[in-house]
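ARCHIVE CARD
CATEGORY: sequence design from structure
SOURCE FIELD: tokenized fold
FIELD CONTENT:
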């Protein structure tokens, strides 16, 4: 059952709204930093070990049963750019709708009531994983994969990149994804003793800068 639930949660067709977001790939393509499969791989690797690692820790901690409101505050502290905080909460609100329809639970209802405008998406994903019977490492894997699959999918549309090449990028990042998920889960396991400061706080300044710029574009293909 857990394996089946993980497949559903990590499926790109799960209606959580991720298809409308490029994970920073759109401004990177516009700036010439992503031009082909090799540069897409470099971008995704960097994103995975920064934003992906932070998200993995938060999701794993939520799946482990730690207070989602404290984790949501911790996510805010790790997201300095207002545009990215808005995106994270918008995605969290959409994921909450899908999660409550798929794996309803009192914990999801309580978070939705406490954060009516949306909690950060990794926190919602972790709580969703817990409601689906998944463990913290499963949650970390799901959110880490999402952090690279979004940009890879977006690059296919933005560059007319061969989808086979984009999928091969994701396959080549499998070992990195495993390490990031494990690091996130190990950090989450320390939250009980050390508090939320145990969670990763890696930063990607260029992603932050371009996210703020992208939010001001009058015309764009992706919401972020």
């Amino acid at each position: 059952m857990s394996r089946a639930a993980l497949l559903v949660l990590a499926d790109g067709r799960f209606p959580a709204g991720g298809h409308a977001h490029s994970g920073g790939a759109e401004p990177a393509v516009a700036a010439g930093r992503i031009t082909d499969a090799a540069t897409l791989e470099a971008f995704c690797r960097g994103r995975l070990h920064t934003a992906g690692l932070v998200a993995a820790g938060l999701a794993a901690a939520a799946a482990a049963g730690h207070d989602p409101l404290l984790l949501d505050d911790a996510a805010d502290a790790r997201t300095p750019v207002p545009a990215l905080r808005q995106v994270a909460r918008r995605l969290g609100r959409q994921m909450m709708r899908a999660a409550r329809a798929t794996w309803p639970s009192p914990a999801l209802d309580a978070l939705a009531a406490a954060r009516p405008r949306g909690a950060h998406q990794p926190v919602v994903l972790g709580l969703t994983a817990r409601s689906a019977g998944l463990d913290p490492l499963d949650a970390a894997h799901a959110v880490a994969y999402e952090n690279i699959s979004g940009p890879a999918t977006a690059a296919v549309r933005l560059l007319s990149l061969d989808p086979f090449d984009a999928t091969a990028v994701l396959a080549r990042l499998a070992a990195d994804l495993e390490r990031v998920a494990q690091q996130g889960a190990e950090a989450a396991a320390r939250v009980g003793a050390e508090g939320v400061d145990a969670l990763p706080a890696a930063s990607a300044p260029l992603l932050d800068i371009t996210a703020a710029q992208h939010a001001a574009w009058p015309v764009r293909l992706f919401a972020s």
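CARD ANNOTATION: The two ends are 33 Å apart (CA to CA). The CA atoms of residues 190 and 198 lie 6 Å apart.
SHELF: design records, drawer C
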